[in-house]
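From the methods appendix. Each design record in this collection lists the tokenized structure first, followed by the designed amino acid sequence. Records were kept in a plain field format so they could be parsed without special tools. The example shown here is representative of the layout used throughout.

RECORD:
FOLD TOKENS (65 positions):
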């Protein structure tokens, strides 16, 4: 998946797994972007997988909840 698709998937997983509103999940992902959490994802789309999206969603929720 592309970097943008990965971000969308991470956001969706946060909404589904943690029962948050879309706006809250989007805010978390945006904060993570600002903190360079996704550094490298844009340069290497091979790490933008569904498994990685699940890992990223868990890590982002834990850090930014």
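DESIGN:
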């Amino acid at each position: 998946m592309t970097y943008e698709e990965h971000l969308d998937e991470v956001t969706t997983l946060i909404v589904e797994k943690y029962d948050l509103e879309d706006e809250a999940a989007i805010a978390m992902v945006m904060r993570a972007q600002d903190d360079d959490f996704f550094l490298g994802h844009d340069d290497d789309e091979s790490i933008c997988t569904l498994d990685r999206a699940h890992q990223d969603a868990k890590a982002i929720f834990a850090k930014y909840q």
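APPENDIX NOTE: The two ends are 26 Å apart (CA to CA).
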